[in-house]
User: Fold this.
Amino acid sequence: MLKVIEKIVYEYASTMSLLIVDDDKFALSEYATLFENFFRSVDTAIDGQDAYKKWNRGNKKYDLIITDLLMPAMDGFELISKIRLKSPSQHIIVLTAIKNINELKSILSMGIDGILEKPYNHSNMILVLSRVLKVIYNNNLIRRQAFQLKLFAKENIKSKVNLKEMKSNASQLPPKKITPPVHKSRTIHKEDTESAKDFTANLDYFDIDRVEVFQDKIEHYQNVACDIANSNPSQTKIGLSQITQGLFELIEVLNNLGTFSVTANATKRLITFVDSIEENQFEDHDKKDLFIDGIMSVLEDLYNWIDMVFVQKNTDNVNYFDASFSNTCLELESIFESDTSEDDDSLDFF
Assistant:
């Protein structure tokens, strides 16, 4: 049974980062060697002060902190208290030789996720980690799903409103006259639709190539987004600037085509918003992670849309993407809007 649980721990930990804190250098080295077999990345700190400095500088988000309690400079109690002030959701396990039940209750009241006994006991470690890592994994999954569901809900509402407006506008329009095909300079109205085959038939190969080139670059921008997930605020800002520069290139193409003003304007607004974010705002790990998840969704949606319209050419409405993309961009802006109590409450959940 223990081997089965250990395998589960390996699977969960393989995607997570860990910070271990212990003033005993020999023990710290032993723990680091042990946990490197489980976790994607492992950092060490010799005391609470060292640990807080590494955690607070923001160049890496730690999924889990395992810390000793009795240490010089800054003990584990103070370390946990300081971290809790900035991140109530940070997952922490303590290392301790304390056996007294009242003292253990006092430790648990700090809001930690678990206790690992000293001296080291492998069975206890596996059991505690399996429980805590499952919680971390599920929390990360819920956060991403909640973000997607929130977008989906707003998209549905927006679609219903648009449909109602379209029906209302259609009832007021005179019968349409048959007109000859209009080429490059045409304007597509909101109530009109055009299939991908008809739309791309009127495009130059040069235009299609420019859009498909951007599609090829999306994978690179997705890698940039993954890299800045564990970067400090300054590096995060630089990485996001690279991504928005790529989005700006896409805007130029869309504006040239003349039919995607909604998507182009939403992208332009997103670029302006990203430029306005201060570096210190990325010190909030939860909001930063949620924002990067959203950027990843934007890039994936763009890739799929380009593929549907310009590559596969198998959609009956080239503008189907406008409403959902605009909503996604607005949701990204709402993540860093501190003056909205609804957003703050939802982020506290994570």
Notes: Residues 2-138 form a domain with the Rossmann fold fold (CATH 3.40.50.2300).
